[in-house]
Design brief:
- With 159 residues, the chain is of the alpha/beta class.
- The chain is built from five helices and eight strands.
- The strands form two sheets. The protein has a four-stranded mixed sheet with strand order 1-4-3-2. Strands 5-8-7-6 form a four-stranded mixed sheet.
- A hairpin with a 5-residue loop joins β7 and β8.
- α4 packs antiparallel against α5.
- The longest helix is centred in the middle third of the chain and has 13 residues.
């Protein structure tokens, strides 16, 4: 069944490789149908992988091998809520360790340039605290980090 709404992600020519990586890294992230081009197109030839249907954490996606014309930017990112440091480390290290790069405040990019926010729930909960001092301490701690350190955020929450 074709979903009503699918997120289309543009890749140069590595949509299948990206989808396979996401499926191996994240739960509820299978690779679905692989569609091959029925004819020549600007960045490929007949028989090349044109699109790949896949899911990331239950979200339906389609990878389009559209060529080098468009690049991913931080204007779009997947935000992954993690339960603890182990889960945070696992996802962060998988993305960065597979040719990706670290950024600030829990953000990183995969090797295809797609942005990810690996965000422990404790950080989001602190930001939403009715005690604005707690939120500020957690925010200030986060601003010094690349990958989020759960113990440091918890210490900031406690004051």
């Amino acid at each position: 069944m074709i979903p009503k709404n699918t997120l289309c992600l543009w890749y140069d020519r590595d949509a299948l490789e990206a989808a396979t990586f996401y499926a191996a890294t994240f739960p509820d992230s299978p690779v679905g149908a692989i569609h091959r081009a029925p004819g020549e197109f600007p960045s490929g030839k007949e028989g090349d992988v044109l699109t790949v249907d896949f899911t990331v954490f239950g979200m339906p996606c389609m990878g389009l091998n559209g060529g080098p014309a468009f690049k991913h930017s931080e204007a779009f990112s997947f935000q992954v809520a993690t339960d603890d440091q182990e889960e945070t480390d696992r996802y962060w290290n998988a993305i960065v360790g597979n040719g990706g790069q670290e950024s600030e405040c829990g953000w990183c990019k995969d090797k295809w340039g797609l942005s990810w926010q690996i965000t422990p729930r404790v950080l989001t909960e602190a930001f939403n605290s009715p005690d604005r001092a707690v939120a500020k301490r957690a925010f200030d701690a986060m601003m010094t980090m690349r990958k989020i350190d759960v113990a440091t955020i918890e210490a900031a929450v406690r004051g």
